[in-house]
Amino acid sequence: MRVPGLAVAAGGVGLAAWLVKAGRPIPEAIGGRATGARAARMQSSPEWSNGKFHNQQLRFEPSSRSLAGSVKELVAGRQERHPVGDVPLVREPLGPLAEGTHVTWLGHSTALVQVDGAVLLLDPVWSDRCSPSQQVGPRRLHPVPVALRDLPPVDVVVISHDHYDHLDMESVKELAALRPQTRFVVPLGVGAHLERWGVPLERIDELDWHEEIKVEGVRLVATPAQHFSGRGLSRDGTLWASWVIEGGTGKVFYSGDTGYFVGFAQIGERYGPFDVSLVQVGAYDDGWPTIHMTPEHGVEAHLDVQAGVMVPVHWGTFNLAFHPWGDPIERVLAEAERRGVKVVVPRPGERFDVSAVPAEPSYWWRSVT
Q1: What is the pTM for the complete model shown?
Q2: What structural domains does the chain harbor?
C-alpha cells in the first residue's frame, strides 16, 4: 500500500486512480468539477490552454524514477524517513491578537497567520491521512497541536492548490460550519471542490495569478508558482498559486508547492519586500525538480522575494519523499548560514512574533531525528 501513497505525494492523482481501477467507490473527497460560468472563467485565463492550466516557465515532467526503482527505494532505502521519537508540540491557546504579525506553524504547510488582528489559515489539513481515503495513503507523523474549534475565529482560509496534503475535505467542512463569516480564497477552479462540500458560493473567492481581493483589511494576491494540480484521474484542471498576504503593518509571502523558477524574483520586484516568508522545503527528489524545491532552492526563493525572516514548511508531518525526515531542515539551516538568512523553526503549534524573532533556533527536531 506504500506505492499508492507515494503516488499521491509525487503526482497528486495516483491513489485516486488506483481506487477507481480497484473498483472502489469514488470518494466524495475527490471533489467537484468546474462547469458553467466557473469553467468559462478558467478557460479565459492566460494560464489555460488545450484544456488545462500550464506553468508559464516550464512544463511539469514526470519523475525519472521508475516504479521498480520507487519500490526498491521504499523497501531497501536506508534513509530514516520518520522521527525516532514523539515530535514536540506546543498546545498553548492561540487567542486573537489586535496588532502585529504572528505566525503559527501547525505542521506540513498548515499555518495560522495573524496580521493586524485578521486571522488567516493556510492550507488547513487536520485529517490523519492526506488522501481521498482515510484507510490508505500517507499518514501523520505527529498529531495536529490544536483542534480547529480551538483556533481564534478564522477570517480567511487560503488554499494554494488542490492536492490532498493542502486541501482536506473534512477540514474545509468543519471550518465552513464553525463560523459563517469565514471566507475561502483559492486559485481558479478550486471553488468547485468547496461547493461540492457545502461551502456557499458567496463565501468563495477564486483568483487567477495577479488577481487580488481585500478581506478584513488584508490584501490577498494570487501569485505564480510552478507546480500542477489534480485529485482524480485528470491533472491540471485547477490552478495552483503562491500568495501575497499584506496587512496595514505586515506583509507575508507563502510559496505553496513549487519548483524553483524565475517567477520568485518577479514576485519580489512587484510585491516585495516581505516581513516573513513561508517556503516549501520538503518532499524533494532528483526526479521532481520542476514541482518541489530542494532546501537550498527554498532559501534562494526566500531571497528572491525579498523577505526578512524565513519559516520552512512542507516538511516533518507526512512522509512524502525518499529523503531522511530531518534532512530538509538541516539543509535549510546550512544554506541559510552560508547566505546570511534568518530562519525560524517553530515547533508545531508554537506562535512567534515576526518583530521579535529568537536569536537561534531551538533545534528541537534533533531530539527525535
Answers
A1: 0.92
A2: 2-59+66-368 (3.60.15.10)
